[in-house]
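I am writing to request your help with a piece of structural work I have in hand. Here, with my thanks, is the record as I have it:
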Amino acid sequence: MNFTNYYGEGFDVEALKNRLNDILVAFKTNEGAEADYLFSSPGRAEILGNHTDHNHGKVLVSAISCDILAAVKKRDDDVVKICSKGYNPIKIKLSETVAVQSEKGTSTALAKGVAESIKNRGFKIGGFTAYLTSNVFKGAGVSSSAAFEVLIAEIFNELYLDDKLTAIDKAVISQYSENVYFGKPCGLLDQSGIAIGSLCKLDFKNPTSPTIEKFSMPKGYALVITNTGGDHATLTAHYAAIRSEMEAVANAFGKKVLREVDYQKFFDGIASLKSKVSDRAILRALHYYQENERVEKACLSLKNGDVKGFLSAVNESGLSSLIRLQNCSVPAEVSQPVVLGIELSRSIIKDGAVRVHGGGFAGSILAIVSEEEKENYVKTMAKTFGEENVFTAHVRPLGTARMV
């Protein structure tokens, strides 16, 4: 099998063999039978479009070469059993998939939400047993939860639905699970990037059917993601505030989301907005509009081979997240690892770009670094944040898919 479409050029073949062997052996040892299928669901890198998707904005996102691997076998009953090393097994009955308040924030909730959303579309699904191993590190902004959701959707899709679900179908199903069952009001960026694969511009004007345009990352540059530390589990209210504040601005104009409000009308109305919403909400709305423009600028630069223009757009996005969106540190906290990581990166990188990655407030940063600077950059970041927290990624052509 050609694994390049999953992991890019130069991936560690032995490490992959070990991961596959571990889950296959664990499956047979514990279940007394061989697994019938292997699935892979990648992490994702948010290149541009920080916190715009939930207001129907534009993003540039890439599936990347870390993934959740799953060894899977069909069952004859309606039970879904999911085992991951170091965690208690998840076991759900497909006849009992209503949302439970006490399960919010758990993988059980995510799996149940995916199942319920598929059933709501009129499909009949059945049980399976899956053994998982992951190198999508949690809390670092590469969307381990979305990778899990889309994986579960694809397993159902392959085993029971004759592959009827499109990539966007799987993304929407997974977003429903995250919003309603897990309790996180995310947009569709994470799930779409993971389900589609490649480096994609997504326009969420129609959020359940975004337009998709694929690009190539500039040659001679690497993606380096650094987990600067912090726990996302305590930050849901901060993420939710970004969305609700943007929507509060839209509501002031009689609309639901900012995509429905003309930029000039918003800009001309800032003076009157100050009596209706907070200054921070206005700044976050300003970020939204300018971020959409940056996505267009970056994509045009990629089309024209203008690497400097592309990198400039990414750097501008990072500054906007810091100043306008204000999601690079937790309000009133003296611990500011994301900002530290960004400023340390700026002092190292001469040819590249850096910005907050994903939801923000804590977690990871993304750097686009030239191959000439990569070794020194990785070494310096590892010294500060730990070698295990610095990850060099490749753009992955394939989204979540069955491997065997």
Notes: DSSP finds 13 helices and twelve strands in the chain.
